[in-house]
What we know:
Elements lengths: L10 H6 L4 E3 L4 H9 L5 E3 L15 H22 L10 E10 L5 E2 L5 H13 L2 E13 L8 E14 L8 H10 L14 H5 L1 E5 L2 H5 L3 H13 L9 H9 L3 H17 L5 H35 L3 H29 L11
Parallel strand pairs: 1-2, 1-3
Antiparallel strand pairs: 3-4, 3-5, 5-6, 6-7
Amino acid sequence: MRRPLQPLDLPIIKHLNSKRVILASASPRRKQLLQQIGLTNLEITPSTKPEDLDKKTYGPWEYVATTARNKCLEVYSTTLDTHLASIPDPSLVIAADTIIVTRDGRILEKPRSEADHMRMLKHLRDTRMHRVLTSVCVLAPREDARHPGYDIQSHTEETKVYFWEEGNGLPDDVIESYVKTREGVDKAGGYGIQGIGGMLLVEKIEGSVDNVIGLPVKKTLSLAEKVTFQQDRDDKATPSTTAAVTTSTSSSSAAAAAAAAAASADDKPRLTEEEKKQNHIASEQKRRQAIREGFDRLTELVPGLEGQGRSEGLVLKRTVDYMRDQIVQRQALIERIEQAGGTVDPKYKK
């Protein structure tokens, strides 16, 4: 008799399986992906926040990243507001959003009708290639009381998907037959790559298939590790460095401490250029995130001013909304440049 599959033997999996973990999504596919790697105690709490961002204002990367972040923050906030004393606060919230981006840059989500479903799939076939963007956002409460009370990390991943051509196995009647199965009615782009759609419509992909399904699992685990185990890791001095500082009370002891610190440094594995680059990117992302959190705090002041009938509330809200949108768009552009291996002048990151 075949033994059942065992969960991944990873510290983050073991840790989260003893905690309250919320998946801010009603997608059964995202739940299944997380369960396959061993996260079996998921609490499903879909976001109720309307997904009404203006697609004309946001580019695809900004749109999907902002939507995922909004879902994550809304579910976390609602959970804290409605929690019972007998139930612990969540240790982790995972949210995600997936969109299809056509060759001409249009954002596709779920089909609105059968006719819309047909038009959508025929367009994807006729243009051959489209991109699937999934943004995942994870949040964990901070162990200290530093504002805003949580650590949040996000990542947007891209996979290119190629449909078969009309003259090579994908005529209109095949698309119509697929639409009538209703497999793709609840999926961005109108098809499911893990089901009949993957066998019937898709010729090949470039990138990860789990990203097309709705959740880049490997990156999700990496983000969970960061917000859970690595809060402020870059800001903390190593024990050996701290000891060297506190014991250097004379020139001789200072020299000894310096030698000890140097020896300790020699024992540590040296970072590769790629690791240094990744650390730098992570540090920059964290700094830019802190700026956005500051604007969120300003926004919290707006309802009070508006409730008092003060015009300052409306002016502040418009100003903060505009500035936050500019930051989000610039951050997404910088991340895309850096992910492609390019460099950005530091002055544009301030």
